[in-house]
Give the backbone structure.
Amino acid sequence: MNATTTKTAPKTDGSLNRKLSLRHIRFIALGSAIGTGLFYGSAETIQAAGPAVLLAYIVAGCVVFTVMRALGELAVRHPVAGSFAQYANRYIHPRVGFLAGWTFAFEMIVVAIADMTAVGQYMGMWYPNAPGWIWMLAAMLLIGGLNLLRVSVFGELEFWFTLIKIVTIIAMIAGGLYLIVFGVTVGGYQPGFHNLVDHGGFAPFGVWGIVMSLGIVVFSFGGIETLGMTAGETGDPATAIPKAVNTVPMRILIFYVLSLGVMLCMFPWNEIGSEGSPFVQVFAGLGIPAAEHIINAVVLTAALSAMNSIFYAATRTMYGLAEQGQAPAAFGRVSRNGIPIWPVGVVATCLLVGLGLYFWIPDQLFLIVASIATFATVFTWGVILLAHHRMRLELRAAGQKPGKYVMPFWPVLSYLGLAFMAFIVVILGFSESGRTALVVGIVWIVLLLIAYQFVGADGRRKIDLETANNTP
């Protein structure tokens, strides 16, 4: 892809740099959403629903597009850092803005812990006798260091990280289609569409299996809302944000559905992901020399890439919360390179806590943090939809037009999206890890509501987003 030149605004003291191009923001959103959920978590979804898991990804992908169009419209009108919290503050209530901002930061940290756990699993293929915590700590130090660099350097690194993932997925899709079309035997199995219906049928666990897979599916897509975080560091958000929103969700849906569809045609679904990443298994089955080692390196890069984007999103959320008086003032100070240092330190500390949890529950850690992240994701998506809905109602009441870039089929899609979020929360209650996530999520919300009582006057008032809006 060609780099897109954007305008850059001069940096002022205490502000973020507007140095991210359209190419950067597209790949930051792709990098956060195409990671551990696809390369590692997809094994869980396939085992839960069989080939019918493709339907779960399609449904969730449609909801993602709805959320992103709502977020895109908000971000074009108000291109600010820490966007979710500030939109919720302005259009719902400062209390909801406080909940949304800190819950999103919590979501990103939890997902980063999941990615960090996956790094330990991937490195175990090469160093089976080495403890996983060593690689998790190394990943944390590497990603923390990258997030101390200038945002333009960060964006460029994330571009190349994500490009590796995309090339790998495309290669897998192309190679798999070749084997399917020409009927080449892979690992003792005959590829073909028959694998979608053999071995118990297309939906071996019925509708319930599809429903139960939605929790991890939503976790897989979680993080795409990071795109909204880039509005505060994009030179021309009125142009860049709509282009990114219109392309990124569909690309992610294609990557997920096509790659998993090809995978399910190559192997019996009940043989996929039995050991480690399904992608490593697929390439190893192709018979290419050292293929499993090459792809293991790629999925390792994918996990690091997702951690990189997520680390970025969490720190920018805390910066935005500080701007509206809902986080310590120190969180709003930036380094000479325009990096919010305190939030970087907080995220790194939380990852150390995650490392400690690995010693306690190493086998269950991934599923538990994935379920907790799902709860936080649907909460964030719900707040985005509600804030957008309130904005549109306010504009309609004032007799104003919403603008050139709008979410289609409003308010029907808003209602459907909010209903989906509520449905996912109910689903979490039907699994052990999901129930743990609900308990953690409810306790987290209660603690935040208590903490809000101690927020000062600045954090209790609705902010004026118009003063931060630099779009025509």
Observations:
- The first helix runs from residue 22 to 33.
- Residues 1-13, 468-472 have pLDDT under 50 and may be disordered.
